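Expect chain and fold; see below:
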Amino acid sequence: MPYRRIRKRSRHPISIAVVSWLFIYSLACITLETFPGAIINSSTEAFRWYWAALIVGGSFASLIGFIIKKAEGGLLWESVGMVFMGLGLMIYGAFILADTKSSSFFAGGFFFLIGVGSWAEAYLVRHDVRELGEQFRKLRKGPEL
């Protein structure tokens, strides 16, 4: 079944660990109202909450996608969550890079590239969902005579 191959690639243990940790961390940021220094120093209060909502919502949607067993629902939740989470991480990385300290270059680049990787993962999952849909349509049509 082609869905098993897609599930295996998209539910990589590293992806699950990163998304789970990001959800726990961002939930703690919101609960305790303690945001990272780069976000506090360079943004408004409203933007901080917007950023936190992106991270919490995206990581939560991805975790829901990891849990759902059906191909249509799980992979869609995962890809949408990865897009929002990736945007939040890229914003965070950009704020760190804008700090212009040489010591923050590694951290800013790391978070920014994790965000880009999340977008790439969302694209790959979305591509696999389309491929899966085409295979199911061919099966429904039956063999061509």
Summary: The chain has a mean pLDDT of 81. The two ends are 24 Å apart (CA to CA).
